[in-house]
Amino acid sequence: MSDASRPSAPREAAAARPHGPAAAGSHEAAAAPHGPAAARPHEAAAAERAAAGYVAAFAGLFGPPPEGPAIPVDWAAVEEWLGLPLPADYKAVATVYGPVALGERLWLQTPYARDPGGFDYGYFVTETRRMAPGVLPFAETGTSDTLFWDTTASDDPDAWPVVVHSPERERAGGDPWRHLGLPLLPALAVLVAEGLRPVLARSGLAGAGAGPWTPPPRRPAPTAAQRAALAGGGTGLDALVALLPPPPEPYLGERDWAWVHESLGTRLPAEYVRLAEAYGGGEWRDWLRLHLPLGTGEYDLVAWARWCTDNYRGLRASFPDRHPLAAWPEPGGLLPFASSIDGDQLCWLTEGDDPDAWPLVVVPRHAPQGPPLTGTLTGVLLSWLRGELDEEGLPRLLYPHEDPMDLVAYAPRKAPRG
Q1: How far apart are the two ends of the chain, measured CA to CA in Å?
Q2: Helix 301-318 crosses helix 257-264 at what angle (to 10 degrees)?
Q3: d(CA 144, CA 140)
Q4: Which InterPro entries match (predicted)?
């Protein structure tokens, strides 16, 4: 990121500097105990005074905290997970206020979690900090703007300037980044001066089920073998296994391949069977779902393929220009076996009598139909995981500065309990 003008340290930080006779080398200073044991109580008291100053400054902008206790935060655990210290003003405000909505359109996010499917601080940070090197998010708005600290601007977190990313400005062709050049509290004061209403309420994103956030295990560093597989250019299952080791107990479902073949009326490609037996059903890169191959549920392979092909024929009858393909069991028809979280379908084109020669095709949800893909199933997966493939329905999903290894992931389906 470009370096904004660096602000001076917040005035509240002056409380942490020595002052008075003890700081001036007086007799009292000479008689005082020295060393870490003596410094720690003084530093703690100074930090408490500084925190109180930050909270008072925030209250001066937006008023007192909402009713009820704030969600507690284990700041040491949060900072260890982040690998960074956080600004003192943010921690002070978050400790007293918790997650709050400012001016009815800006949500100050703090480390908390809701029930599954709700807000999760770890997901919020992990996904949004991908936008640019060195940014760390702390707030978002109702118009999808995100407020970050630029951690590259200073080694002192209390001096990190606030930057704002605006998708609206990006769509208009402008620079999406606004550099406020000020730490959190002065930056909020600027936003209030520009029209942000100086009112607050408990964040509606938190809800009644919000509670403390527990940092998840940190993603392990990639091994040398994974790095080699990422860069090596291999296209077979061995290369995929080296890049992304399969789960120890892959779950395929409760039936067998004979039942699948009989239900669909065809044998399936041997490469797909080997892939499914290695990995089971699951989700690649939080995007592509490999339907449970031997399952009997409505979203598992057999039921999904039947529904999807019937649905495609109905769409083709109404919109033939956008749905030009045949659908299984029509000759050469598409047969889906995986889908994206956005509704795109990864299919075979069942051309000819040899399933091992069937080409792959993506049926995109939001774009015209494209040509078949080039390569084998594992080769296509590897090319996509490496950030080389960028197709409608199988997008690259990487910012230009990102390491593809950071997004290589697979979440396997679990066998039902009992």
Answers
A1: 52
A2: 20
A3: 6
A4: Knr4/Smi1-like_dom, Knr4/Smi1-like_sf
Beta-strand pair 345-349/177-179: unpaired
H helices of 208-300, in order, are 224-232, 237-243, 257-264, 270-279
Domain count for the chain, please give it.
2
What does the pLDDT look like over 85-129, one tens digit per residue?
999 999 999 999 999 999 978 999 999 987 666 788 999 999 999
Q: What DSSP designation does 361 have?
A: E
Does residue 228 sit in the same domain as residue 208?
no
Asked if 132 and 402 count as a contact pair (C-beta separation under 8 A), the reply is no
Same domain, 371 and 290: yes
Does 142 map to a domain? yes
Residue ranges in 327-416 assigned as alpha helix (H): 377-385
3-state SS, residue 187 = helix
Burial class (CB in 10 A: 0-12, 13-18, 19+), 74: middle
- Looking at the structure, tell me whether residues 193 and 234 fall in a common domain: no
What's the longest Cα–Cα distance across the chain?
97
Q: Which two tokens stand for residue 414?
A: 């679990």
Q: Which domain holds residue 112?
A: 11-212
Q: Any idea which residue has 């919020």 for tokens?
A: 124
- What separation in angstroms does the CA of 195 have from each of 108, 186, 332? 17, 15, 60
DSSP 8: P
With 80 as the cut, is the pLDDT of residue 26 above it?
no
Residue 245: Cβ-neighbour burial (10 angstroms; 0-12, 13-18, 19+): middle
The mean pLDDT value for 19-45 works out to 46
Rounded-to-integer distance, Cα 110 and Cα 98, Å: 6
pLDDT tens for 407-418 read 999 999 999 986
Cα-Cα-Cα-Cα dihedral of 383, 388, 391, 397, to 10°? 100
Residue 246 lies in a domain: yes
Q: Where are the alpha helices (DSSP H) in 265-364?
A: 270-279, 301-318
- Domain assignment present for residue 2? The answer is no
Do 272 and 356 sit in the same domain of this protein?
A: yes
